Every structure is written in structure tokens, then in C-alpha cells.
Amino acid sequence: MSTHGRHGYRYVGPEELRAAVRPGTAGRAVRSAADLDAWVAERGAEELAEPFTFVVDAEGTLRLGARRSEHVACAGGGRVLSAGEIGFTGAPGRWVAAEVSNQSTGYCPDPGSWPAVAGALERAGLTAPPGFTHEVVFRRCEECGERGIVRDGDFSCVFCGGALPATWNVDPRPWPDGA
Q: Mind listing the pLDDT tens digit for each residue in 119-141?
């Protein structure tokens, strides 16, 4: 069974960051343009200059966190269908996701997680680009166990020089039944 297919992605980052997550502190659910209007009004329009942290939670809802906040906190410690950074342009009631990446070293989502992001944006009435505007390819080195980013198509581990696999393998733990 795929470790990220229908179940999403489990947090694979530092345990101390997950341990710091408190119940009820997940990122703001964005289910409509009005939700995004409220989020921007609370934060201030100047924060639109930089992308926000986002996750698509296990139910398919877009959740936003402040820039540079931890994805695991935005997800309330749970699984996600995707995670990364998202930047919006537009005006109240008419928002466009102008830049979207899967840059999350805590969840390391595969670029194949885009449909979850597109679906969450569509359900919220927000315009999405045709795909991630910046794709990150994460892999775990099977020789040294380190997580890394594939750059310029070079599937070599920057830590030990080992070959990185062609397919996503970041979460080495099998999913428990029913998880």
C-alpha cells in the first residue's frame, strides 16, 4: 500500500516540533473566499507580500498558517493530503493562488499531491494555477536514511552520495491497519 495515497502524508520532521503542537491550534480553515478575506483582514494586507504556510488536511480542507510557521502546527499534528507555501493576489471575494509550492520538510509531499491542493482551492472558490508553481522532489536516502531534495534531476544524496530512488519513499514506516 502506498504510504501517501488515500491516507495522505504523515509528519516525518523533528519530533520536538510535533510534541509542541497543542490541541485546537490547527491553521485557519479556508472553505470560501470570505474565509480568506477574514484571514487577510486579521493578519494585515502587508502579509500578502510573502506566501503563507498551508496544508490540505485529511478531510480535504485548505488550512493556512502564518509565514514560517510549522506545517505540523498548521495541520494540528495530523496527516495531510498536501503541504507547502501559498501566495495569493486579488481583492476581497476574488482571490487567486498566484504561487503554490509543496515545500514542506515536515511532510515532504510529492508533487503528485497537487490534485488535493487544486480540489481544496476549487471547493473554497479560489482560483488555482494549473499545478505547483514551484515543485520540490523529496526522497529519503536508503543508504544513510537522510531526507533530501532532488535538485536539477540529480537523484544523488547530498549527505553520502548514494543513489536516491525514482519514487517517493520519505516515510519509511508502514501504515497501521485503518490508519
A: 999 999 999 999 999 999 999 99
Helix (H/G/I), strand (E/B), else coil: 177: coil
In a domain, 76, yes or no: yes
Query: Is 7 a member of any domain?
Result: no
179 assigned to some structural domain: no
Per DSSP, the three-state class of 162 is coil
In a domain, 154, yes or no: no
Nearest alpha carbon to residue 58 among 77, 39, 32: 77
* pLDDT the model gives residue 3: 38
